[in-house]
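Aim 2, interim progress: modelling of the magnesium ion-bound target.
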Amino acid sequence: MHLVGGFLGSGKTTAIVQACKLLAARGLRAGVVTNDQGKFLVDTAFVRLQDFPAVEVGGGCFCCNYGDLETQLQTLMANAAPDVIFAESVGSCADLVATVVKPLLALRHSPVPPASFSVFADARLLSLHLRGMELPFSDDVVYIFEQQLEEAGLLVVNKLDLIPVEKQPEILARVRERYPGKPVLGLCALEADSIQNWLERLDSSEGLLPEETLSIDYQRYGRGEQQLSWLDQQLTLRLPEEGRLTSLAAALLGGLDEAVRAEGIAIGHLKFVVADDAGNSGKVSFTSLPSAGWEDQIPALTGRRLTLDMNMRVEMPAEDLNRLVNQTLQRVARQFLAEVEGQDPAVFHPGLPRPTHRITGAGK
Ligand SMILES: Nc1nc2c(ncn2[C@@H]2O[C@H](COP(=O)(O)OP(=O)(O)OP(=O)(O)O)[C@@H](O)[C@H]2O)c(=O)[nH]1
Ligand SMILES: [Mg+2]
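Predicted structure of the complex, ligand included:
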């Protein structure tokens, strides 16, 4: 089992799904454990859409739901018997070495001990941070980002393709200088060759499980998590006639991204799965630094009914996020004469982290 952590939107699920595909091409079966504070998890839906077995630990991080992590691992083993498991922790979580890696190794209730712990970072955010420039998040949220990197077994500098080629060696050198002795890997999770490199590193996973645990300030970590808010919702939008479903999806998702950015709010990750009745579906993401060409992530949708899973993670009060989403939804629905159906969203701030186990100190 490979544990994969790192900040919201850093590319964990993208890398895991690509890795599952490469392993399948080698005749190996891979399974995934997803994790989040919320529900209707876009990541779980996305992994299952690619036909890989996925189980989820919802309603909190692995650390605070350790028992459920073990149960889900057992379910995955029993139902899918995967050769390899990737367990992706929620992007606002830190201190996994003490609360997940060491308990899995020491308590041995789990059918599968972890073999490696990769922590992903968006190369652009990491580069800004290491050059002493401000990240778009408040100090306590940046503290979580830093703690995640600090405890990495393998520090994956992802989205390198978004950095000019001539600058890439400089960034990797800076990362190595800042974290001496830590294994570092530059990656583009969208490219199979790059993921192949990651898998090779994981295959020879000696030394990719850290022994040192963090001296982390839980008050600060908790404050950081509580600055973030979560909105999860499943919706159906029905148009009066065919032909405009893709435009509706683009107007709604683009509108939500714009509405949040217009308030100057830091985006952790806005992620959506869109689907029509004909089986066309896709995942659409917006992360803290805007990326061009997001419309290309929307598949060609047909018919009159759009189903939407929404997972939004931003740094703002939860009630403000709820209001923004509601206003945007109503506006776009009016514009397209669409009927909206769905339950009220789950909107909340993550609770204070209270790990089930915490095993500190060096040594497995
Ligand atoms: N250009 C580029 N985009 C990437 C890369 N890796 C991931 N992305 C994009 O980044 C966005 C977020 O990717 P995810 O894999 O969902 O990120 P995540 O870390 O799983 O996000 P959370 O689970 O919400 O924390 C998606 O739009 C991906 O397509 C990469 O290497 N290069
Ligand atoms: Mg993910």
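The chain has two domains: 2-224, 230-348. The mean pLDDT is 95.
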